[in-house]
Sequence to fold (111 residues):
Amino acid sequence: MGRAQIGEFEELVLLTVGVLYDDAYAVSIAAELEKQSGRSVAVSAVHKSLYRLEEKGMLNSRLGDPESKRGGKRKRLFNITPYGKKALDESIDLRAKLRGQIPDLAFRFNS
Fold:
């Protein structure tokens, strides 16, 4: 696989899967993203991102145990693959590289 390509929302979803580790499913990911970012996150957008990231090989999923409080339904739990970690590392490195190239002068603002 070549250079991992992910968008900003996909990056946030990947990071949140890592944060939630063993409890990363669509609803918990959306809730954590809302909590961390302070912005509204649609569960449907998270679902779409999760399945796209899984297709790209950046996430794996498995079905959790049936839960009586969910009417016997099982959650689809996600975890980061080595390729997903590579994508995150590359994204973080690129942001840091670009940020490091901004001259201090660019941040001098006239009030």
In short: The chain has one domain: 8-100. The mean pLDDT is 91.
